[in-house]
Amino acid sequence: MKSFNLAPYLTFWLAYWLGIMGVVSFILKPIGFTYNENASVLCAFYFISSIVGLRIFSFNEYYLKIHRPQKQACLIFCLCIVFAVVPIIYFKNYPPVSIFLEDIIKSKILFPLFQFDTQLTKLFDILFQQALIFCLVNYLKNKYTALKSVVIFSVIFFVLHLPLFIVFQVNALVFILPAFVAGGIFAYLIISYRYGLIYSIILHMSYYICFGVLLRSYKFL
What we know:
Elements: H1 6-28, H2 39-56, H3 59-63, H4 69-91, H5 98-107, H6 116-141, H7 146-161, H8 164-168, H9 173-192, H10 196-217
Helix pairs in contact: 1-2, 1-6, 2-6, 4-6, 4-10, 6-7, 6-9, 6-10, 7-9, 9-10
């Protein structure tokens, strides 16, 4: 799809992202496949969707051009283990206050639970997002200047999160407000640094860990 102009490429990219997230939110979750119930189905769905997305949006072509791709693949694997395991071990001894636990469950934003199912599902969710982010940012980089690519992706990433209002109502702001800034940072890191993909993944994972800690400790939702 690299030869397409921005409009058709972006339309298909957005349709794919929103389609996958729509299936998760409006089909799988209502029938019982959530972050903490039957989570293996969501993990498998995100994984398959990532593989398909990588194929469609020319991931291999972009990935082989980055600095030391095999080393970066190993680093990503290590990051996945850290994200999936360390918070669970740590927060097992740091349970949320009961009232905050009730708020977390009611909000349907379950990643602050830091349970095995929720953490693993969020990991596959992040990897799906980062795979598509990497492809689109590299597509933009090949067509525009670095600054223009960052600005375009920032706007795209912000708009992409607006449908979350349908799912989480006002609670969606915890994702939507940071999205504009995060989108710009993701794009800047990927474009500007040899290990930009690694830095982007670290930032993405760190947000969910840090914000999860806040939601376990203070009433935001």
